[in-house]
Amino acid sequence: MSSYKRYFKKTIKNQFPDRFTNIMTDINKEYQNIAVDTRFASTSRNPLDKRLDFCAYFLSLIKTLDKEGETYETIKTICLEIATDYVRPKNKIQVFWKRFLPKLVNTGMARIGLRFLHKRVSQNDNPQGFITHIIKDKEQTYGFGYGIDILECGICKLFKKHNYYKYASILCEVDKVTSGLAGLELIRTGTITNGAKTCDFRFKKLK
Length: 207
Known about the structure:
Largest sheet: 4 strands, antiparallel
Shape: globular
Structural class: alpha+beta
Helix content: 40-55%
Distance between the termini: 39 Å
Order of helices and strands: HHHHHHEEHHHEE
Radius of gyration: 18 Å
Strand order of the largest sheet: 1-2-4-3
C-alpha cells in the first residue's frame, strides 16, 4: 500500500466508522479507473508529475463521497484534514529540514539546482502533466529569490477529464499549509482552478 493511503484510511475511519469498509472499497474501485490516466507520472521526466498518483487517490475519495451524497463543504473538510496530516512533519528532523531548505535558496549550489529543476519542469512530453517556470529574480519574488508559475496544471487536467473540476481548488489550499510549515507565507494572486492563466507562487519569510 502506498504510504499516503494510510492517512486516508485514518480520516475515513474517524469520520465514517459505520461505513468505513464500504467507502474504502469504493475509493479503491474508483482509483483503479482513475490511475490509468496518471500511470505516465511514474516515469515522467518532470518531477511535478510524481504527485499525480496522490491526487488521483484524492479524486477517488471525492467521487466516492459525492456519490454518497456528502456536501462540498464536508468533502473539502475531509480532504484538507487528510492532506494536512500527510504534510505535517512527523519528527524534529523533518521540522528542521522543512525550515532549513528555504534558507539555502540564495546559495550558489541552490541556484545551480534551480536552473536544472527549471529545465525539467518547464517542459513535458505528456499533455496531461505539469508545465512550470521557476522564478529566481528577486524583484519578482519579494526579495526571496524563488517563486513558481504553474502554466499547465496536471491536477486540473485530471479533475476536468473526470468532470470533477469544481473540486480541484480544494487541493490548492494545501499549498498554504506546506508553505507555513517551511516558515514561509504564500502569496498568490490567482489559480488556474479559479480562472487565472497561471498559478503563481511567491513567498515571504515569516517572522
